[in-house]
Amino acid sequence: MSVGGAVVVVVGAGYEGKRRIHARMAALDARLVIVDEPGHWSQSLVDEGIAAAWLAAPIVGDADRDAQAVLDALAAAGATPDGVLTFWENSIDVCARVAAALGLPGNPVEAVDAARSKVRTRELSAALGLPTPRARRVRSLDELFAAAPDVGFPAVVKPEFGASAMGCVRVDAFEELPGIYSLVRGVVTPEHDGIFRTGNDLLVEEYLDGVEFDVDLVMHRGDCVFSSVSQNWPTAEPSFQEAGLHCPPDHDRKAVGRVIDLCVSTAQAFGLHRGVLHIEAKSTSRGPRIVEVNARMGGGRVSEYVRQVWNVDLIEAHLRESLDLPPALTPSRKPQCTVVNGLLYAPASGRLAAVGVDESPPRGGATVAVDLEAEVGDAVDGPEAVFATLLAEVHVTAKDLKRARAELAGVLREPPRVDPVG
């Protein structure tokens, strides 16, 4: 459904895989004005006819300063947007400030900040009386030792800001703390990932058992008008690197319903009253618990999964909310298909000799897409390094979960080959 040529500012275009999102907004007749740091790949979207304009703004990782840089760039260009949005985790707090300064639709800055910081998420959840794991902020190894008795074991050490489980590690005993602290500190640096420009504090929190889910919500004026649930597969602990997922879930329906209810009530209590949210939660032995709240759409191909399974376009939904337009959702009553996402990691450290992905034509009406994340010849880390190198993501769409899993197994039948170095 067209948005009638509305001028929409995109604060932070993200990685190149998000090109599909911007192309979809352009197809919906949004005139995109992208604001990002100098030299960013997204400048090419103007030449491709996807964006109407591209503006440079220096990004330092401080939300207030970065928002002012975006506002200055818009003012210098004479841009008068109808809406402001982002699909990029690093920019959600900046985007909220820009929308507020321009008087445009958006979630409150304090609500977005609480979601952006995993420490504030835990603090606010506890203050609101929501079921919340025990958690403490950690700035040093001494603070980690001091906090561990309050949290208990097993526990999780993770960065305050982050995504894709970067730097998240399970810890089971006091003697493991120094090694894990050093390991996580080595990851939580701006050189490793730009997301850590915002801050490099850690937190230690209670370990949650059970099955994890990704819950994608569409919020409109404080109400949840749509939800989709994907069921995550067990991770290879002690790291929490994603192994894969399937949508829709096949877990107990009542348990999944309780997870959705907690996600919706958490969003409402936080004040996240509009747009697409991506909330990660677990169905634990003590009931549902929130893992993290993301005031944005899920990354990767999440929007494609939801569209395939439920006939709901999350990109369009978020775009319309940024313009204060009513939702235009016609979800299917039953799942139209099953989607499986499998992640392939390096089995050992060394030099990648073969990825091991078989891209033969799929069978039984299934479709397969492969996103390669590493190339032959790259240096890679295996599971002995805790955070293994991601080699590829495989996306399978089929009529049911059994067929989708079988197709994925066929694509990954040959394991990757890694040659030792030296």
Q: Into which percentage range does the β-strand content fall?
A: 25-35%
User: Biggest sheet: strands side by side, in what order?
Assistant: 13-12-9-10-11-14-18-16
The total of beta strands comes to 19
Mean pLDDT: 96
Overall geometry comes to globular
Q: CATH homologous superfamily name of the largest domain? A: ATP-grasp fold, B domain
Helix content: 25-40%
Q: Judging by the overall fold, what is the CATH architecture of the largest domain?
A: 2-Layer Sandwich
Overview of the molecule:
The protein is an alpha+beta fold. It folds into 3 domains: 98 residues, Rossmann fold; 73 residues, Dna Ligase, domain 1; 209 residues, ATP-grasp fold, B domain (D-amino Acid Aminotransferase, Chain A, domain 1, 2-Layer Sandwich), CATH 3.30.470. It contains 12 helices and 19 strands. The strands form 4 sheets. An 8-stranded antiparallel β-sheet has the order 13-12-9-10-11-14-18-16, sandwiched between helices. Strands 3-2-1-4 form a 4-stranded parallel β-sheet, with helices on both faces. The chain has a 4-stranded antiparallel β-sheet with strand order 5-8-6-7, with helices on both faces. α3 packs across α4, α4 packs antiparallel against α5 and α5 packs across α6. The radius of gyration is 21 Å and the shape is globular.
Outline of this structure?
By secondary structure, the protein is α+β, with helices and mostly antiparallel strands. The chain contains twelve helices and 19 strands.
